[in-house]
Amino acid sequence: MGKIAERGLNAPLYVYIYGFVFLLYKTALYINSIHLLTAIGSLLLYILITHFLFSFFRLLTGSFWAGIPVLIIWGSLLHVVTIAQLLGYSFAYIPFSFYVSLYLSVVCLVIGLVYFLRRFSAYRFPLFNQMANVFLLLSCIVFLISGVKKIFDYREENKTHLYATIKKHPVVPKDIVWILMDEYASSVSLKQQFGFKNPLDTFLKKAGFVVLSNMHSRFANTLFAVNSIFNNDDSIAPANFYHGLDLLRRGSLIPELEQSGYRFVNIGFFDLSQHPMVANRSGYPYTYPQQLFSGTLFGMIDNALKNTVVACDAYNRHIYQTLSDSLVSVSSVPRFIWAHLAIPHQPFCRNRIGQLQNKEDDDVNDSVRIKKNYLEYLQYGNSLLIQLVQQHPSLLQKIVIISGDHGPRYPFLRDKSYQFWPYAAVYVPEQFDTLDLKRLTYISQIPGVLFK
Q1: What are the backbone angles phi and psi of residue 179, rounded to the nearest 5°?
Q2: What is the phi-psi region of residue 392: left when phi exceeds 0, alpha when psi lies from -120 to 50, beta otherwise?
Q3: Nearest-CA neighbor of 387 among 298, 327, 313, 312?
Q4: Is the backbone of residue 153 left (phi > 0), alpha (psi -120 to 50) or beta?
Q5: Long-range CB pairs of 345-348, under 8 A, 24+ apart, other chains included
């Protein structure tokens, strides 16, 4: 038995163990979502591809070290976002030029290694294999323990995030319409950072809205910001995106609304308390396969295909039309209508007069171009909101909230505090103490004041 273990430790098993470690690491991030058949299938596929690559490089180099270029290739594929972040890029804004540079470097490195290994093919250094194998096996144990521990941690966090009792509120016999404009900055932020005076303020004030210029978001991230709304002004960040998505599916606000007599209408790209999304337009990992491949090259390609100008514009047009149809439909009970438009978030699909744009990818460090396109898209969003109010007079018989989720997060914007300043305006069609609204700090506190 000892000799078998010794031979195993001396063999280049690390190229195969690495895939198992990666699988454990990704699964441990949110073990509740695991799908066993998907995990087994992914691991078998990894082993098959790795065996082919290892055999190819061993044949090419005749070397004991043929597993090293295999690990370099897998590392560049599975950890591409981590590499980008180490180089200072933001997850949401990794330019295409980074991928070109990275994989050209990987190709050159692998070619150089092949040349080097061919010259040293006769040399063996079993201690390297032993160290690599032991290190990865210990990593497996660490991630297993971490995954089990997180099961208990999530249970404790859920007690904090999800209230044990659902409160019943007196029914306000009016629809509540919340239109969320993704990454729409407050007018203060627009003036300070973009030199832009927002004309939407004037229009909404004339229509009777209260514009809340100093409103903040708890998080500069869509998932966490929306989570804070639907979990009753929760100031605690979810452990990660996977946990945040799970919390949205079990948020406390919607059950409270429904027990109070409201019907919830979800017109957005999150699953909210058993109300399914209209379309999966975001880059967040909803499923276990997406959890496994988020942050990898495969996940980034999927996001890129999902977030083209054409696809995003089609989503926004669908949301707008569905919202418009909902406003004219008749309901026997009051409704809470949630509409999530991906405007003025990148990609900037249209200019201010509504012409479809052809540019798919903008350099986020090109401040002149980004500011221009962001403001043009924001003005297009303004035109949609104004059109909605003008074409639906009945909207002013409802309670209406128009807000962002957070402010713009481009690298060239130096004052990062403005990332937490979203747009916010509220309309209440009857006598209402607007001082209560103006005292609020966070958009996620708005539902509590309206119920009060």
Answers
A1: -105, 110
A2: beta
A3: 327
A4: alpha
A5: 345/182, 345/183, 346/92, 346/93, 346/183, 347/307, 347/308, 347/309, 347/312, 348/373, 348/374, 348/376, 348/377
- What is the distance between the alpha carbons of residues 302 and 366, in angstroms, rounded to a whole number? 25
Residue given tokens 């978001």 in the structure block: 217
> Each residue of 439-450: pLDDT tens digit?
888 999 988 887
* Burial grade of 254 (CB within 10 A; 0-12, 13-18, 19 or more): buried
**By the 8 A CB rule, do 110 and 69 touch?**
yes
Strand partners, 297: none
Task: Give the C-alpha separation, 385 to 86, whole Å.
Answer: 40
Q: Which residues of 25-64 are buried (b: 16+ CB within 10 A; e: fewer)?
A: bbbbbbbebbeeeebeebbeebeeebeebbeebbeebebb
Task: Give the HSE-up count for residue 290: Cα atoms under 13 Å, Cβ half-sphere.
Answer: 12
CA contacts within 13 A on the Cβ side of 235: 4
> Please, which residues have CB within 8 angstroms of residue 135's CB and are 6 or more apart in sequence?
14
List pLDDT tens digits, range 3-22. Answer: 655 565 667 889 999 999 99
List the alpha helices (DSSP H) in 177-230. Answer: 187-194, 200-207, 222-230
Measure the CA–CA gap between 262 and 176, rounded to whole angstroms: 9
Looking up tokens 């713009």 gives 408
pLDDT interval class at 70 (50, 70, 90): very high
Q: Report the predicted TM-score, pTM, of the whole model to 2 decimal places.
A: 0.86
**Contact residues for 147 (Cβ-Cβ < 8 A; gap 6+):** 24, 27, 28, 31
Q: How far apart are CA 362 and CA 63, in angstroms?
A: 44
Closest CA to 425 of 221, 68, 179: 179
Which residue is it, tokens 């017109």?
267
From the list 231, 217, 214, the residue with the least C-alpha distance to 182 is: 217
- H or E element: which one contains 366? none
Residue entry with tokens 């409160």: 167
- Which amino acid, 187? S
Distance CA 208, CA 200 (A): 12
Calculate ∠ Cα 448-212-400, nearest 5°: 60
